[in-house]
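User: I'm putting together a small comparison set for a docking exercise, and I want a reference complex before I start. The sequence is below, and the ligand is flavin-adenine dinucleotide. Could you produce the 3D structure with the ligand included, as structure tokens?
Assistant: Of course. I'll restate your input first, then give the structure tokens for the complex.
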Amino acid sequence: MDATHPAHNVVIVGAGQAGGTLAGLLRQQKFAGRMVLCAAEPVPPYHRPPLSKKFGAEDFLQWLRPESFYRDNDIELRLDDPVTRVNRLARTVSTASGADFPYAYLVLATGASPRTLPVAGNDLQGVLGLRTLTDARVLRESVLAGARLAIVGGGYVGLEVAAAARAHGCSVTVIEREDRVLARVASPELSRILTEFHTARGTRIIAGAEVAELLGAAGRIRGVRLTDTTEIDCDLVVVGIGAIPADGLARAADIHCRSGIVVDELARTSDPHILAIGDVTQRLHATLGRLVRLESIPSAVEQAKQAAAVIMGTPVPAHEVPWFWSDQFDLKMKMAGIYDPATAAVLRGDPDTGAFSLFHLTPEGVALSVETVNAAADFMAGKKFIGTRAQLDRGALADPGTALRDVALDGPSTPVAAGARPHTRRI
Ligand SMILES: Cc1cc2nc3c(=O)[nH]c(=O)nc-3n(C[C@H](O)[C@H](O)[C@H](O)COP(=O)(O)OP(=O)(O)OC[C@H]3O[C@@H](n4cnc5c(N)ncnc54)[C@H](O)[C@@H]3O)c2cc1C
């Protein structure tokens, strides 16, 4: 398209990480058309990672961009006015306040909503799913007041909340349905090490436990009852059992969805005028070669770059190896790739020192994922190994005395991180 043509309107639905990033990228790349950024929340885009890690700190609210950025860059930021309908025939969207906006490109960046716990008492006051600034403010107040926390779900968000709440001296119990924390996303080795780490710092972790009921008194949470009848007293329940893609608008508009909006490796949906980015997507991932729903900042930013390339007609950005991070106590964790239980772990470093890495290798010695703790150099090398599918020497990898540049058997093979390529459609 001719990006300098004013008739080319872009409407972005969802002013979160993905939508906010795309708006900035488009103006940086000199998109000269009209741009409307529709927000359901009453505030401009902000960073979500601090909500579970730094909610006890004064500076936990971090804006993606200063508020003046939207004005200065002629981005029409419509706060507190969710889009209620997409009219694909007329190519317009309607908002709750009754406004209509035409689009040449529509970008759906509606994120995901916390999954609710399907048990009695889930509507009690003090039962919280952590996604928004409002949720984090409730959590902050409770923790600063010394609340006893029950966290349902031992995923990354649950463990981050546990660590931050313990650091403020709160009593914390983590209840996990699977037989280990992080069962969906991390290796058993990392789960075991983190369980020991949290337990040693006073968090009670109950794995293999199912919540039967949330118990209330005068409409407020007072405890959690498990199916084995164990009762845990608490003043706040944080439910961290995953998120559901907010694909309702897309489904109502008959856009291809499968537990998320299905997009190709350029963020294109089944409608050529509609793109989708961020947590709401089931994306065709070039390095993995299959559909995945990634919920991470790097993935949202990568897809924002893809959408910008489509809108601006510029070359396709290089594929990126999926990665994300988590901070728990003084552990700075960075993970790359996607853990596959068919791989075997190679430990580099010593968990007792607080700095180590787990490389997960196929029988041929190819790393599919890496989990690093306070080991930034291992993360960088591991991410590169995954991208190049280098074959690694297990013994050398396990020996911290061998430099990481010397652990590949015969140098990089089959590079998958390609540079600029033509736009090809693959849904
Ligand atoms: C507590 C927490 C901690 C996290 N920590 C990390 C981390 O450490 N590292 C990491 O990589 N990732 C982390 N993540 C994940 C990361 O924040 C998400 O992957 C990222 O925010 C996804 O961006 P998004 O724009 O797709 O969704 P969001 O940021 O959720 O934004 C979607 C926005 O769309 C809005 N919206 C929905 N429907 C409509 C509508 N109809 N009209 C208008 N607006 C609408 C929503 O209100 C929301 O503001 C964390 C997430 C949470 C919740």
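The chain has a mean pLDDT of 93. The first helix runs from residue 17 to 28.
User: Thanks, that's exactly what I needed.
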